[in-house]
Amino acid sequence: MAARLFFVAASAAALVSAQFPAPPSNPIQGCTTRSFMIPSWLVQDVKRSADGSVSFDVLSRVSNDTTSLACPASKAGSWTACSIQGTAPSNGTLTASVQVAENSTTFLVNQTWTCNDRGPVMTFSAMGNSSAALNFTSPVLIKGSLTSPVAITPQYPEGPEGHDLAGCTARSQKPSWVLSTIHFTDEPGDGVTSTPFQNFNLIVTNPANGYQASCMPGGSLGGTPDLSQLVCAGSEFQSSLTGRHTITTQASFDPATMTFSLNQTWFCDDTDASKPLQINAAGSTVLPLNCTTEPAAGTNQTNRYCSSTGDVDLEGKLGTVVTLQAYSLTDPVAPFGDGCTLTSIFNPAWEFSAFEVDDNDNGSGGSNDTSSASVSFDIILAAQNRGFQFPIAITQGNAAAGAGAGWYECAIGPDGGDDLPLWPYQCVFRYTPATKELQLRADWACRDLDLAHPIYFRGVTTTTVNSTLTCETAGGQSQCTTADPAFTWDAKISNVTWGMTAAAPGD
């Protein structure tokens, strides 16, 4: 049966590719972005000679350059350095070593390269290692850790649920699903005192990978549930670590015949991560539901309520099976814009909003005397890729010791201590009412590339609140805010420094 599955994959690939172009070999564009996100290599075309020597090619997944190496025989368990055969990388240096044991070979790669696609030349260094069985003939993925310009190990997605679950590929040869918690509601309505209403929901479980999806009706132009286009979602709806490929489920329910139809695409690489499979299957069945009826209040209509008494097995028909690019199931998705780290390095700026000046001495925000005034604003790093992050409120704290006249500590609002991204974790600011100049010295951290090893940034900002402030006074206290409550503005961060150590409080 395994041979049959791989045969289907080979025969279907051309057809599917014609309809849905395969993703590029490296969807993450730009040398710099790839260097930060996937510093890694593929070891390919490994040859082991009878005398114990080893040769192989190393493909950089940053530059797509291939380097051929040869390694002399050595004592089992000891490391031996490899020499480059032919042309060496033109951009930087690459060294490699191997360690041959009784049942495996371990490859170690260390590379330095440069990128200039984001402006000034930036030098990167990374290293990594990986092992493979002696009889393993597929490409070997080496995930690298950056050692320069920062020391991080980029995190990789977990991949679609169950892709590496033992038996995923084998069980997918005879696709099936388990349907559970099935409910159907049919309230015809009379169109006068009540409107027609139908609802349907169930849980779909794929035994091949353990994936569960909850299905419910989608909306329609009339605002009533559409049972012909059910919306199905599972763990990928709540996870940001799915990666390039996500499980998709299309489903429908026909109330007239009680027929449920399903089409699902999932992924398996449990037998060989370098040959991941995209698997599609479909099936339909008449649901054995138990229904009760009751008269609708105030009408001559009868409502119907149906549910299942147990699980329902749905057999599927295997559709197209496509072999994807090596190790692509755990590759990160291409970013649609710079996140925290790249924004902080290449285009650092704060986005300000909700600016407000409260004055207990009726200063109306326009006096140079700030002794009685209190300033507050919202702030977030002006990254293109913010996810679901929102600005944080900054209010005026105590006078900042040693910072100079008029400087105050930032009192960072709710959730400010929760280590969330795109916010400063400490800062001081000064506001000059006469010129509406706002100065900010802030420290922030980025964890979007490596949760365990954040990169710490520091920078200064000088900006002007370029909006009319409107003031209201009550009880001797004035409150001045921007004329447009939704007014926001960006301000560049200058003198940015960054490293792997957090600044001490008040530093």
TrEMBL record:
It comes from the Eukaryota. Keywords: Signal. Residues 1-18 form the signal peptide. This is Bdf97f75-8b1b-40a6-972e-2505625f99d7.
